[in-house]
Amino acid sequence: MSTDTLETTTVETVKMNGLQAINAALMEAMEADPKVLVLGEDIADNEGGGVVGVTRGLSTKFGTMRVRSTPISEQAIIGAAIGAAMGGYKPVAEIMLMNFTTVAMDMIVNHAAKLRFMSGGQSQVPMVIRTLTGAGNQTAGQHADFYEAWFCHTAGIKVVIPWTPADFKGLYLSAIQDPDPVIIVESGKTLFVPMDVPVNQGPIPLGKANVVAPGSDITIVSYGQMMFTVMQAYEELTKAGVSVEVVDLRTISPWDKETVLASAEKTGRLLVVHEAGRNFGPGAEIAATVQETLFGKLKAPVGRLGAPYCSVPFAKKLEDAFLVQPPEIIAEAQRLVAMG
Amino acid sequence: MSQTLENRAKPDAKTQLDIYRRMIRIERNDDATRTQIRRGRITAPYYSARGQECIPSAISVLLNNDDKICTIYRGIHDMVAKDMPLRPLWAEICGRVDGTCKGKGGPMHLTHPETGVMVTTGIVGSSMPIANGFGWAALLDGTKQVTVAYFGDGASNIGAFHEALNLASVWKLPVIFVCQNNGFAEHTRYENGTSVDQISKRAIGYGMPGYTVDGNDPVDVYAHAHAAIERARAGEGPTLLECKTFRFMGHVFGDADGYMTKEEKAEAMAKDPLPIYRQKLIDDGIATAEELDALTAKIEAEVNDAIEFAMACEFPSDDELRRDVFAEEIPA
Predict the structure, then answer these.
(1) Model confidence over A183-201: pLDDT tens digits?
(2) How far is A279 from chain B (nearest CA, A)?
(3) Which fold has domain A12-198?
(4) Which residue from A232, A233, A239, A162 is spatially nearest to A203, judged by alpha carbons?
(5) Domain B13-322, second-level architecture
(6) Taking the domains of chain B in order of start, what are their residue ranges?
(7) CB contact at 8 A, B285 and B66
(8) Annotated catalytic, A274?
């Protein structure tokens, strides 16, 4: 990490990638609060500090009672996190890849998410589930899925998918102290692209979107690593004279309706882009809500782009076709703008 | 073979009587629950544990109030044994706002942290991974607290059992895994669904002690639970206890028991732990019949009071649908 001295702003920043930002957030949270725990497969330093090194250094600093590597037992990992959370701790449980949440779904859906409600508020499950996913590295159909819609559909768990390292830091700090279970999805590229992070980046509230770029012709809503693709399209659209407002949703559930509705009302056009499947994807919920609320005020129907109805493919050519690419976003945005 | 326990702790007279008190409290409460359902005063799925009273009773006399249990849908006996007060229990099974869960959990999901009833799951096997988390918390807190995970014989065939026992052993967690083996996984006979003749043998694969005990014998359950709890409190790790028993009322209320023979059921019911234990207490001079009758009457009064209390409670308001989803109420 190197400190940049910026002439134009008063906020001192450091360049770091998402991985470093999450690591910094965990370090800070564990330092500040002895109740914060970390567990998961290979997460302690003896096992390499995490599959891509997100948790590196934690067990050395805080010991292996608070930072525990586990067997490859996803139900046991989430179960232990639930019990520890109900026992007064704030565990951060890593499920190495989002596809592996499928073998812990009972623990996540039937227990972590529901115990507060089902116990009439007696049980609190303040835990964070960290998980990594995303297509683009030819890992095929069982290592790259975006399953956020499943969790958004489950009452009682918050779903966060950050894009920038600063957001990772701030959203993790909030999630760890949140009284309810939160799943944070780390999508491939977001861990490795360095960006500026304010030196004293504090908590960023969950449930708040970020208007990344103001515009007046169309609103594009996205999140996670798809934001990189959206920003490429944004550059091209800007060059072509289309004024795009880009909204990074950041928290998918509960989502920031206020910001999205205000932006869509202002521009009159909305395009939702995500890596998750388009069928029954989060874009469907957003589109429906916006159309219900702004019917008559929109200049075009809400557009949705997402993955086709198939598994993530292996062959690079197919994987490229599977993922939404900048030209599709540009074409769809221009089509919506041309409608009126 | 299941392991054999060397030093067997014996419950003293007072403890034996306390075990009986818990057993009769379970039995009277269960009987009243079935009566109320039959009369149409409650509508609820009910999984009677009639016949299994001895197991949690002989274990609970060894537990402190802050020791925890994680149990399952057939688990009201485990809660009653842990001395959960009956008024909020009944209000919950009647779906009233004064229930332990404000009527949002029901008979399959009672929760009462004050008496250590932390989680009651309707998912077979799921009590175990969560119990481990309480065990981890106790180790971090540096307390001697233990957690008992109750489950049935069917649950020993689900992945959660294996993941949880393995992790508990590797982490030396203060958890006691108590399998109440009643011979049937829902309607499937034990031997048609389970690869070993004794579930306790599975403990060998997870590097922990495993015992098969007579779940109808309070003295046998007590001795083994004592050893398991002492081991957990001493930081030596978990134990698997398989308590052999029988459920007299089938899987769920209304079950016609079509999957077992009449003879088999009659034979099991002849081993009903309640009358046998009652007679033993009398024979051993621990209590007189009159004393035990008085105890039963007192418990019946407690149960009746709880029922009438519950029936008089209000139903939860519809606003409860927006509460407890998250800590912060969902706006209307």
Answers:
(1) 999 999 999 999 999 999 9
(2) 27
(3) Rossmann fold (3.40.50)
(4) A162
(5) 3-Layer(aba) Sandwich (3.40)
(6) 13-322
(7) no
(8) no
